[in-house]
Amino acid sequence: MVRRTKEEAQETRSQILQAAEQAFYERGVARTTLADIAALAGVTRGAIYWHFSNKSDLLQALLDTLHEPLDELARASESEDELDPLGCMRKLLIHLFHQVALDPKTRRINEILFHKCEFTDEMCDMRRQRQTHSQECNLRIGLTLRNAVHRGQLPENLDTTRGAVCIHAYINGLIGQWLLVPDSFQLHQEAERWVDAGLDMLRWSPSLRN
């Protein structure tokens, strides 16, 4: 009976997340209420509050569903024992572009984050979470770049802190622009070339040298 109750609770949580994804995508985060999500999910607002504190919590839960498949590869590129850290990063970024372009769920959630979410009022908590996440990403990327320098894959005088910010901004910019105007360039078909262009920036830009 306890196991069944846990299964039902998990099913309800999944229904709420699916409804939130649909509502945020169709209406934007600011114009979506918890009552809207409850109606789509076929649950009460109380059921939503049982699983999530607010809309910010809901959106973060949606984002969390996208991180898991890439965690192992990200950890490998950050490891000092990894023999090919730059190759791991390249593989990770190509996979990311493919996911955004080809997986409908990944595309919808990224479009919500990039173009349908205002970090104001009730979303202030989400803004702080995104700020923390961005800083953590820069640190993780910087660690990978330092490992790549150590392995001779990047110049010894690369400013890895500045390089991390640049490659992070480059990837975010490509995804954001493609989601806004998908016909402006090919993200999936030319994923390798887009990633290599970013890595070339790290290899050759004089402005990224110490």
Automatic annotation (TrEMBL):
Keywords: DNA-binding, Repressor, Transcription, Transcription regulation. Gene3D superfamilies: Tetracycline Repressor, domain 2. Residues 10-70 form the HTH tetR-type domain. InterPro entries: DNA-bd_HTH_TetR-type_CS (IPR023772), Homeodomain-like_sf (IPR009057), HTH-type_TetR-like_transc_reg (IPR050109), HTH_TetR (IPR001647), Tet_transcr_reg_TetR-rel_C_sf (IPR036271), Tscrpt_reg_MAATS_C (IPR013572). The keyword Endoplasmic reticulum does not apply. Residues 33-52 bind DNA. It holds the Pfam family TetR_N. One of its GO terms (biological process) is negative regulation of DNA-templated transcription. GO terms for molecular function: DNA-binding transcription factor activity; transcription cis-regulatory region binding. PANTHER family: HTH-TYPE TRANSCRIPTIONAL REGULATOR ACRR, HTH-TYPE TRANSCRIPTIONAL REGULATOR RUTR. This is TetR family transcriptional regulator. It comes from Pseudomonas extremorientalis. The lineage of its organism: Bacteria, Pseudomonadati, Pseudomonadota, Gammaproteobacteria, Pseudomonadales.
